[in-house]
Protein 1
Amino acid sequence: MTKKFIKPESPLIGADGNIFNLIAIASRSLKENNYSEEAEEMTKRVMQSSSYEEALGIINEYVEPVNVYEHEISQRDYIDYE
């Protein structure tokens, strides 16, 4: 049985645009959602791409880019007011 792939959210919008940084962020998002094989596949494909735009397109095939700051807020379990 093949598992259905659902693109996980990844805090790419507002992140440092260095392609290696974006690969790392997207890969971590995939791995956190039990998509380790897809993370490896994405990384290989991005590294073989011929342009920055192509690389971004490949990353977007695997993850749903979200704003860094909004993602941080949604990931908090609670707010500590102390």
Protein 2
Amino acid sequence: MKALTEYIAKALVEHPDEVQVTQTRQGNRVRLEMRVAKDDMGRVIGRNGRVANAIRVLLRVAAERDGQQVTLDVMEP
């Protein structure tokens, strides 16, 4: 999940070297926290959160195939 999130985020932003994703697990639940450069927050979140929600949908589908649940939080820089 972490690698997929990093791949998607780095493709969207102007400063891919500043993308950081941390992953924590609790049983079958995975929590991802993504941090990007302040200038790239709008690109990752999108208008009305559409881009962030699309990333969450992709992660949910990938997680269900592995029998897991995933949440993604976009953190303020």
